[in-house]
Request: fold
Amino acid sequence: MRRAVPVLLLTVAGLVPLWRFEARPASTSGTAAVAEAPAGARTVDGELISTSEGDVQVRVVYSGDEIVAVQMLKQPDSGPTRRAVPILQEETLRAQSADVDTVSGATATSEGYIASLQSVLDGRG
Amino acid sequence: MRRVEQVMGLPISVDLVDREPELADAVERAFAWLRAADARFSPFRADSEVSRLDRGELAEDELSPDLAEVLGLCSSYEEATGGAFTARLPGRGLDPCAVVKGWAVQRAAGVLADAGARNFCVNAGGDVVTAGSPGGGRPWRVGVRHPDLADRVCVVLESRDGAVATSALYERGQHVRDGRTGLPARGLLSVTVVAPDLTTADATATAAFALGADGVAWAAARPGCEVFAVDSERRVLRTPALPVAA
Reply:
């Protein structure tokens, strides 16, 4: 636990210049998504820190004494911060035959188009 | 009314929900704009502005404001991707198609909106601009083509006033090249970007596809963009705020 603290501080310190880098004022977003902590993990929320660009709060996920993730609970809603912390969810690829109004896809050729669902939709109207 | 026409080598469909008779004329003007954009910016037409620029027949100060805007967009995406996205592949002529398509179709949607249309969908070869609702006040339901199955979708997105673009590799011989290597881009099967306008959505999707696996996080960090990607391992990666339909 003790050795974890400097790691956390370094992580946060590393992000601060990125907010400073943005000149325009930015609002604070509280909507940063928080991933599910893995089983057996423990989470500790940091204090809410005010910066010139907005409030910052992090959550640290421990597995035993080891930090396995640092998540943003609050972050300034500015471009560089989003770039610093892109959040992506992983899912399984599914095949659906849902009711849709139109289809997005790379249809480079008319042959591909004729085979595609969009041609069915265009023929419907 | 619904109308489909082949322009820029693509089937472009307009689905106009609004019934005002004068809007039929706006649909004509939108298609006329798309044909004009093709004539001016196609690298496959020897007399286009793009081809003349490429042959050195136009000086920088002779460019139309529209072409200057397109080339400016190309440069900014090229810079933002470290050259993975490029309008000038090694050994080839100037080809701004990757930007022109989304930009021209967004303009066509603007022609409809300026004429008073509030509820419509334009689909240009799988790149989509929507406005309003298809009916009953609900949002447009935009399916994303499954990368392996042409008659299935892998997610359904909701869109009101916005755009959805997909860059993908479904078939042989159809690919985006990585400008850093000149070779077909690797790492992703399909990447879909939701953005406020199709200029942004289309260029961001193409640039992300050119970047490969790193392109997903890159696109997710672009302002106003939500991302749904299928990588070559068939894993789905998406942004939490992607507008997935219930």
Q: What stands out?
A: Residues 23-41 of chain B form the longest helix (19 residues). The domain at 2-238 of chain B is CATH 3.10.520.10 (T-fold). The two ends of chain B are 27 Å apart (CA to CA). Chain B has six helices and ten strands.
